[in-house]
Design a protein that fits this description.
Keywords: Coiled coil, Membrane, Transmembrane, Transmembrane helix. This protein is α+β, with helices and mostly antiparallel strands and 113 residues long. It contains three helices and three strands. Among the domains are: 42 residues; 29 residues. A hairpin with an 8-residue loop joins strand 2 and strand 3. It is rod-shaped, with a radius of gyration of 39 Å.
């Protein structure tokens, strides 16, 4: 640590081992802040994994947005068609009732003959 403090302001130390890397820089003290050592570390395989996950997340967000849009369109269509269901049921009920009455009348007429 002491050797890093001896570096001039803005200078840094960089090391790499395999896919891992580290960068240490020294910031000189100011009126508002004390002396700082800034340490940045990274790994190529982690960066690739993060990039892949970021792409997957954006794709899933887009698919979710499209699914929500199509779902809302389906709900609107369902609401439009559901308004007529009571009238359609009433019409089919009356048609069934009328055909039943006609069937009973024809049956009584045939039985009397």
């Amino acid at each position: 640590m002491d050797s890093l403090r001896l570096l001039p302001s803005g200078a840094g130390y960089t090391a790499r081992k395999g896919q891992a890397n580290v960068k240490v820089t020294r910031r000189a003290p100011t009126e508002k802040e004390p002396e700082q050592l800034v340490i940045e570390a990274g790994c190529d395989s982690l960066e690739l994994a993060c990039a892949g996950y970021s792409k997957t997340i954006s794709t899933l967000k887009r698919q979710l947005k499209e699914a929500r849009k199509s779902n809302s369109e389906l709900r609107e269509e369902t609401k439009e068609s559901s308004g007529n269901t009571f009238l359609m049921r009433l019409k089919y009920f009356c048609a069934g009732l009328l055909s039943g009455i006609i069937g009973i009348v024809f049956t009584f007429i045939k039985l009397r003959k």
